[in-house]
């Protein structure tokens, strides 16, 4: 098995478009040794779906040895755990590309809701399982402000607001069920009061550098 590059922590920002996630990403980059990458077009999702198919094949069709003339020949030899670890290692090496100095690795993504209905929690479980020690940071913003963004200009305002409110509920439910590995922040809070991010840094076990945070917030974003 190909070894995964080593790191102490893995952080994923889970959110939707125009939630202020780039600002949060920049704030987390103030952690010493942190490399928090940007979006990757939800590339992990098809990897999760591949792992899920392998898992289902092994435990639905491969519960017993299958002869060479069987239609599912080889299904019993699939090792879903190893397959998931290989996929995770490949994603880290070829997509996130940490340096030898990277201590805290991660990324942000705004497309988790592209998952099939009801599948997002399972997708998030996959990430927590195969990128240990993983911390999921859910980022939310007031639905009306999200909907006003030109990024959503091709979608009806009401539909954007409904989507955001539904995702916020899903995020809150997931954090409530996995409070040891998940944390929820609100753009509307930290954009007004930087110090509100202290609780997140405490949760991550990292020092809150006030000067570095202020510098990150003062930097003009490219979008």
From TrEMBL:
Pfam families, sorted: Sulfotransfer_3
Protein name (record): Sulfotransferase
Native organism taxonomy: Bacteria, Pseudomonadati, Pseudomonadota, Alphaproteobacteria, Hyphomicrobiales
């Amino acid at each position: 098995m190909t070894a995964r590059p080593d790191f102490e922590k893995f952080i994923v920002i889970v959110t939707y478009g125009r939630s202020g996630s780039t600002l949060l990403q920049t704030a987390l980059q103030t952690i010493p040794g942190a490399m928090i990458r940007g979006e990757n077009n939800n590339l992990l999702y098809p990897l999760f779906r591949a792992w899920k198919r392998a898992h289902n094949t092994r435990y639905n069709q491969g519960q017993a040895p299958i002869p060479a003339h069987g239609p599912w020949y080889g299904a019993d030899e699939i090792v879903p755990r190893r397959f998931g670890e290989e996929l995770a290692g490949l994603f880290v090496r070829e997509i996130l590309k940490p340096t030898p100095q990277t201590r805290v690795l991660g990324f942000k993504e705004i497309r988790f809701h592209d998952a099939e209905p009801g599948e997002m929690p399972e997708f998030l479980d996959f990430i927590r399982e195969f990128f240990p020690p993983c911390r999921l940071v859910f980022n939310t913003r007031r639905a009306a402000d999200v909907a006003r963004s030109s990024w959503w200009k091709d979608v009806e305002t009401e539909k954007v607001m409904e989507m955001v409110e539904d995702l916020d509920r899903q995020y809150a439910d997931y954090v409530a069920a996995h409070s040891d590995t998940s944390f929820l922040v609100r753009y509307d809070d930290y954009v007004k009061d930087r110090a509100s991010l202290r609780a997140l840094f405490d949760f991550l076990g990292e020092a809150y550098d006030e000067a570095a945070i202020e510098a990150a917030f003062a930097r003009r974003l490219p979008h």
